[in-house]
Sequence to fold (224 residues):
Amino acid sequence: QKEVEQNSGPLSVPEGAIASLNCTYSDRVSQSFFWYRQYSGKSPELIMSIYSNGDKEDGRFTAQLNKASQYVSLLIRDSQPSDSATYLCAVNSGTYKYIFGTGTRLKVLA
Amino acid sequence: DVKVTQSSRYLVKRTGEKVFLECVQDMDHENMFWYRQDPGLGLRLIYFSYDVKMKEKGDIPEGYSVSREKKERFSLILESASTNQTSMYLCASTLGGAWTAEAFFGQGTRLTVV
Fold:
């Protein structure tokens, strides 16, 4: 079983819709969770981090964490074509090591 | 503006060559990482370092070594390049001792071994 799992996609949504990206993780002691966006040919950049159960909102982005279900998600409201990218979920279990999922490719259709 | 800088954006090397990938960060971060990224496999950790001269193997260290002589610099060495090491290599750094810390990435080096 992979430590951090994401659906590879592509996830296609029309412009203006809500995009929902999901991630599950296997290590119950995981403490911190991150969403990175990676444009094609570029390096990952942080969008959101979340550490406690519930929702965390930043502009059009909302991260949701449910530690009991070992599940973290990213919602993108009013999706724009510029949001088209690969979204990487990363998990840290309180060590130096970050575990990345393989990413979900999002396509926002104009 | 915080920065992680990798020495080359694109690199083409021949099989058997010794290859050096350099990474420099200006954020005074304790932790530095080398990942490779391949389609369908995501980011895989090769090596990381939590202090000068300290290093730990990641998930796929075979065929690689690292050097960290100064806090700001972390080098990845391919002792004898092989075609299966053709990949995108990403360097990252984080603040030490903080499990909430964001990882900052360099721009990546696309290495092709022919």
In short: The mean pLDDT of chain B is 93.
